[in-house]
């Protein structure tokens, strides 16, 4: 039954990851269309930019929960052993892909995955996640660009996972997420190269 449990967890993770929290919150509490305002992204930073710090923070926590809750469920449901580790990483990737390609938006207009990846790894390795977060804060202080900080922290995460002593599948999971996060920041990279990326403002 373990295989079917894992498949059910993967489905739940993808469905949870697909929930466009920022879009729902901005439609409930503002008159702004998140997809047509600011960067057009459904993530917390764009919500903060157009709807304020409070909704931005709620979106951040909700997007993290989309990753953390399914991974925690995998730990709780699957018995200890090799299957549980596999379930944890597969579930994390499913939630992450759900955020990038949300079912409820026909696979389009997904977020960049930073918060959801962070939520996954808060459960998998709090130490590695905390270290990557410190890198994020440092880069924000140095560059005032959330995109630069996000990509740097994502790139650092696999190294933090390795130093934390996690098994190779965890490194693969972190590496996959890091690559996808950088790819999703393509437009930000182009603006950075043109000197047009706006600074992070509160």
Key words describing this protein structure:
202 residues, 74% helix, 10 helices
- Number of strand elements: 0
- Biggest β-sheet description: none
For the record, the count of structural domains works out to 1
Indicate the structural class: mainly alpha
DSSP helix count?
A: 10
- Which range does the strand content fall in? under 5%
Mean pLDDT: 93
Coarse morphology: globular
Poorly predicted parts: none
| H-E order | HHHHHHHHHH
Helix content: over 70%
Radius of gyration: 17 Å
CA-to-CA gap between the ends? 49 Å
Detailed description of the structure:
The chain has one domain (2-194). It is 74% helix and 0% strand. It is built from ten helices and no strands. It has helices at 2-17, 21-29, 44-51, 53-77, 82-100, 114-124, 126-143, 146-163, 168-184, 186-194.
Quick summary:
This protein is an all-alpha fold. 74% of the residues lie in helices and 0% in strands.
What order do the helices and strands come in, and which of them pair?
Blueprint: H1 2-17, H2 21-29, H3 44-51, H4 53-77, H5 82-100, H6 114-124, H7 126-143, H8 146-163, H9 168-184, H10 186-194
